[in-house]
Amino acid sequence: MTETNRWPWLFVPSVLLVAFLTYQEKTRLELAPVATWSILTTGILIVTAGLFIWRRRPNNRCWWMISAAGFAWFVGDFEHSIREPISVFAFSFGRWQGALLAWALLAYPGGRIETRRGRAVMVSLVFLFSMRSLSRLFLHMPPDVAGYGTTNRFLPITDDRWWRLVENIFGWGYPLMMLAVLVIVSDQWLRASRPGRRMLSPALVAVASLTAIVLAETLAGWNAVVGSNVRVFQVVSYAYVVVAWSLAVGLIRLRQTRSAVVDLVAELAGDGTPVQLGPALARALGDPTLQLLPWSEAAMAYVDNLGSKADLDSFGPGRAVTRIERQDQPVAIIVHDIALLEDPGLVNAVVAAVRLTIDNADLQAEIERQLAEVEASRARIVEAGDAERRKIERDLHDGAQQRLVTTALALRLAAARLGENVDPSTRTVLAQAVKELGEALDELRDLARGIHPAILSESGLVAALESLVDRSGLPVDLEIHIPEEPPTSIAATAYFAVSEALTNTLKHATASRVKVRAVVADGLLDIIVTDDGRGGATATTGSGLSGIADRAAAVGGVFHLHSPHGDGTRFELKLPCASS
Amino acid sequence: MGHTVLIVDDHRAFRLLARELLESEGYLVVGEASDAVGAVEATARFQPDIVLLDVRLPDGSGLDVAKALRGQASPPLVVLISTADYAQAVASCGAAGFIPKGRLSAASLRKVIDAA
Predict the structure, then answer these.
(1) ipTM over 0.95 threshold
(2) Do B105 and A412 touch (CB under 8 A)?
(3) Over 90: is that where the pLDDT of A494 sits?
(4) Which of A397, A417, A470 sits opposite B88 (nearest CB)?
(5) What secondary structure does DSSP assign to A422-452, as a single string?
(6) Looking at A105-114, A310-319, B97-106, which range is the least confident one?
(7) pLDDT value for B102
(8) Distance CA B82, CA A34 (A)
């Protein structure tokens, strides 16, 4: 809320001040305390109703009409002031609360009077009240009319016929106009559908109360009402409160409906689609006939759940179509009870919420598409990397390794064929060359295996893991249950993961026992490597373990490392596996 | 008379040197093959005591050849050879042992034969 629209808070001290002055005035007049308190609480409650609406619906102008009615209620109570200007002013401008509340009624629920007949009635009411106020201010008032002895000090006119004429016109016109308000609101209510009636019901209660008050005042006369009986006066006073608070409650109920719509949309935001949203909106708005028809680019039309084109002219009377667009492009239409248009704010909220939901669904779909694309491309990168590793390993096998092998055999053969008379140093050199070449071949074999283990391609994951464990130099308990060979990228990931885990254990864990378990169950290859070493392993960025975690994620797997200091290490990898 | 040997490898230079190396130590190389199909045919034809079998052949895996040979009426002793490490695959294919190609010698072959 901005600083500029906090000024209505000034109504609080203002109404308290006015109530205090009223209390003093009534005490001076020795009015019955019950009646005095009725006056005070009525005015305060009416102003409070206005402020309540302002707090909840700051853009709805009904709030100030109702607050002003509360102040107008107090103004009339100074008719009896001993200060002549005050009593003249109060007598002239008091009792405007009826007109202000009628205005709020006609403007309910949107805050503006939308119908021509409503505006005509309101203009008539304002004219009647203004005419009476001006008449009381500027025309002669007989000293005995109100019984207060107030006289017109501004424009003394000895002939009071005009004044009486105005009073008579007002006396008939005011109740007639209130009856017109009653007719308008009742007609609106009768013609409305179920959601419309629910919306207009508070106004119906309010208009019935206000009309009853006005008729009572007219038939009995205000002074008669005040003077007849404290109970009657209390009933009339609190009827004004009922009017004000009926409207306030009605507007808050509307807000709750909006909140329900917004909450609903927020709830659906994750996976809401127009098809799901339509029935949900129908429930939230209390309009079971509501339909949400999305725009179909293929059909170039709004379509229903079955994909059939909607005929916008076929919805019939009592139905309204609200269009939802985004950047001038059609998104959907809501076909609903025309009564919902009584609250344009509600419709706007629904449109905004639906647009947000659809945007969100589109965004979600786009994110999911991009995520799937990223996951697919990541998997492709891993597969391409594996393919490249296999190629390099094969090139080594077919090229350098073969040449070195034949060279080693040739040297060994040459050494075997050396005659007896050969210089011993030549024999030593040849033997040394054969030995060096053998070691070079071993190193090259290890290198090739690190790039891609040939046994994995030739014999499968089980043999590759057994080979890995066999070479590890660790006391390993091996448990394997892999009935079918997993996909190539999964098998390679599993192999390199176990290799990395065993290498880490050998280098850092100082473990006495290691257990490797590789089991396929429920479509998952579950690999667990545990040791009883000193723990403390971490998958820090750039480490071999983090590389395994990245690789596992790339093929849709999950990596978990639990390695508390001094309590061993548990390395677990779950990989999706087509075979089971 | 020494054991008869069939050498199966797709590299001609290796076959030539292996033949000379083994024959210089008393083995009798009865034949050579350069692929999987040829290996099976040559085994049936020459009935060697020992088949020195490369694992990676151009038309298939030597492991499969070893399994096929194991099913014969009088199967030869199959010794896998490769530049890569296939020691772990020996049992599953019914071979008698594995020798890295660079370590091939009459002595290493004798060790496998003795262990079989």
Answers:
(1) no
(2) yes
(3) yes
(4) A470
(5) S-HHHHHHHHHHHHHHHHHHHHHHHHHHHH-
(6) A310-319
(7) 87
(8) 112
Angle at Cα B77 formed by Cα B75 and Cα B82, nearest 5°?
A: 125
> In the beta sheet, which residues pair with residue A559?
A573
Amino acid sitting at position B75: P
Give, to the nearest 10 degrees, the angle between helix A62-75 and helix A11-28: 20
- Measure the CA–CA gap between A6 and A10, rounded to whole angstroms: 8
Residue A403 Cα, gap to closest chain B Cα (Å)? 9
Nearest to A512 by CA among A486, A532, A484, A490: A532
Is the Cβ pair B100, A417 closer than 8 Å? Answer: no
C-beta atoms of A449 and B89 within 8 A: no
CB A533 within 8 A of CB A570: no
pLDDT 10s digits, A386-401: 889 889 988 888 888 8
Report the mean per-residue pLDDT for chain A. 82
Tokens representing A341? 């248009």
- Give the residue from chain B lying closest to A448, CA to CA: B84
Mean pLDDT of A109-129: 89
Whether residue B100 is predicted with pLDDT greater than 70 in this model: the reply is yes
Query: In this structure, are residues A26 and A38 in contact, taking their beta carbons and an 8 Å threshold?
Result: no
Tell which of B16, B64, B83 to mutate to test the A interface (max A CBs under 10 Å). B83
Tell me the three-class secondary structure of A348-375, residue by residue.
Answer: HHHHHHHHHHHHHHHHHHHHHHHHHHHH
What residue in A sits closest to B104 (Cα-Cα)? A409
Q: What is the mean pLDDT of residues A240-254?
A: 82
Query: Do residues A244 and A66 lie in contact, with contact meaning Cβ atoms separated by under 8 Å?
Result: yes
Residue A362 phi, psi (nearest 5): -60, -45
Residues A423-435 have a mean pLDDT of 88
The full DSSP string for A510-545 is --S-EEEEEEEETTEEEEEEEE-S-------TTSHH
Cβ-Cβ contacts under 8 Å for A184 (sequence gap 6 or more): A106, A115, A117, A118, A121
Chain B interface residues (partner A, CB cutoff 8 A): 11, 13-14, 17-18, 20-21, 24-25, 55-56, 61, 63, 82-89, 92, 100-105
Beta bridge mates, A296: A301
Q: CA A386, CA A409: separation in Å to the nearest integer?
A: 32
- Pairwise CA distance, residues A455 & A464, whole Å: 6
Count of CB pairs separated by less than 8 Å, A with B: 92
φ, ψ (nearest 5 deg) of residue A516: -115, 125
User: How many CB atoms lie under 10 A from the CB of residue A170?
Assistant: 18
Report cis status (omega within 30 of 0) of the bond before A109: yes
Residue A153 confidence (pLDDT): 55
**Contact: B85, A410; criterion CB under 8 Å:** no
The model's pLDDT over A121-170, given as tens digits with 9 standing for 90+, comes to 999 999 999 998 888 877 755 554 444 445 555 555 656 777 788 888 98
Could you give the CA distance from residue A201 to residue A185 in angstroms, rounded to a whole number? Answer: 9
β-bridge mates for residue A336, sequence order: A320
Whether the predicted pLDDT of B51 surpasses 60: yes
Q: For residues A295 and A310, is the Cβ–Cβ distance under 8 A?
A: no
Give the number of C-alpha atoms closer than 13 A to the C-alpha of residue B67, restricted to the C-beta side: 10
Q: pTM of this prediction?
A: 0.54
CA distance A488 to A477: 25
Chain A residue with CA closest to B9: the answer is: A402
